[in-house]
Amino acid sequence: MTSPFEFDANAIFDSLCLDHTVIMLLIDPAQYGKIIDANSAACQFYGYSREQLLQFHISDINTATPQEIQQAMNRMRIKQENVFLFKHRLASGEIRRVEVHSAPVICRNQRVLFSIIHDREAACREQEAQQSLLERLQQEVAVSRQKHLIHSRLVSTQVHQLVWESLLRNLNNHLETPLRTLELLLDHMQVAQTPSTCEEIEGDDPEYRSDQMLPKSLLMLQGISHTIETFQYFFSLSRLRDESFYLVIAVQGAVQVSCIPFQNPPIQLQITGDHTLVHSGSRFALGCAVLFLINNAAEVFQERAEHVKKPILSISIGFQDDYKAIAITDNAGGIDRAVRDTLFDPSVTTHQARNALGMGLYTARLMIEREFGGWLTVTTDSQGSTFTILLPNTGDSAVTE
Predict the structure, then answer these.
(1) Are the CB atoms for 384 and 329 separated by under 8 Å?
(2) Residue 305 pLDDT more than 80?
């Protein structure tokens, strides 16, 4: 029985393949890959006439080494492998990537290779372009993530620094007056212990009698100790990341370490609403956010002291829609139109008298969003402004006493 490969390949090639649009070659591996026939599509693709191609060996157009070409032909001849990817050189010098499908056939009693060649250059370039685009996108995403990480770390560092700077500045304000007063009392006590001046001082002013100054000094020391304990307790909350707490306790803690007690004229403070509302999370973070808003209002009152004779700051705790709300309202005359659109921009300050950046409101909003997934909103008119902290109503558990 005749093998399916035992036919006159030349006759078949002439009748079926010469004018086919697919690139086809007949190659003799026994003659080191000599091209023994080529169709018109091959001539058009490579840029050679048929006569020229028949003078070539496959190594004349294949950029692989002779050893690699011979190994491939051997595998094709024994049907071990019949599809290969090569780079072929055209008459113009251009290199094209091609996919070669080869199978052994009988031609003039010799086994030769019948090769069908597909031009894959455009597909390879498109694939490379897609791969390049993918790699560039991945790189850009990686760079973007890195930048975001660095930005987040810088922002966290700035927020952390701003929180502690604000607390330490307030602590200094709380301690400055009693320490100065205590220093004066101690000076008078020291002078009073001098025999030549004791009677004169005690006789001139009863307030500086030695029996009066000691209790006053002790009272001052107790006040300083209480202030330090208050701040120490507020600082200690920074170690607690998740607890259930009353919102009013967080608000009161912020008020105690704020700059409100030292304002002149004094600020009338009102805390109203539902004192039983509970929330879970970082009480320190919420307290700091409230602290920034309170200090912001106090600074505005200070700047507008000539126009606001009776400053009032109202803090209301309750619900707004589906959120727990802490609304902080002042009667300082509202926010200037020039800064309303950039109110939470850290590079813009709402305080015209200061050159510092407006990090306070920005930090307050950032802490509310990051720590609680909440919102910080603002409304303003000619009477004053209201900053409202909105916290998701998550059905928090009761406070453990």
Answers:
(1) yes
(2) yes
C-alpha distances (whole Å) from 361 to each of 162, 214, 219, 367 are 11, 44, 37, 10
**Same CATH topology for 9-119 and 240-401?**
no
What is the band of 374 on the pLDDT scale with cuts at 50, 70, 90?
very high
Give the pLDDT band (50/70/90) at residue 393: confident
Sheet strands (E) in 177-311:
243-246, 268-273, 278-281
Largest alpha-carbon pair distance within the chain? 144
Nearest residue to 390 (alpha-carbon basis) of 288, 279, 295: 279
User: Helix, strand, or coil here: 77?
Assistant: helix
Residue 108 · residue 133 · CB < 8 Å = no
CA torsion sign, 260 to 261 to 263 to 268? Answer: positive
Match domain 9-119 to its CATH number in 3.30.450.20, 3.40.50.300, 3.40.50.970, 3.40.50.2000.
Answer: 3.30.450.20
Query: How big is the chain by its Cα radius of gyration, in Å?
Result: 44
Token duo for residue 340: 């309303």
Read off the tokens for 50: 């048929």
* pLDDT (mean) for 219-232: 66
- The reported pLDDT for the residue numbered 357 is 38
Tokens of 22: 């697919």
Residue 323 forms beta bridges with which residues? 320, 392
CATH number of 240-401: 3.30.565.10
What's the token pair of residue 5?
């490969």
Phi and psi (nearest 5°) for 191? -65, -40
Amino acid at 121: E
pTM, rounded to two decimals: 0.52
Using alpha carbons, list the distances in angstroms from residue 240 to 243, 255, 259.
7, 20, 24
The single-letter DSSP state of residue 193 is T
Both tokens assigned to 197: 């001046």
Per-domain boundaries in the chain:
9-119, 143-239, 240-401
Convert the pLDDT of each residue in 176-200 to its tens digit: 666 666 666 666 666 655 655 455 5
At residue 309, the 3 state secondary structure works out as coil
**How far is residue 361's CA from residue 348's CA, in Å, rounded to a whole number?**
10
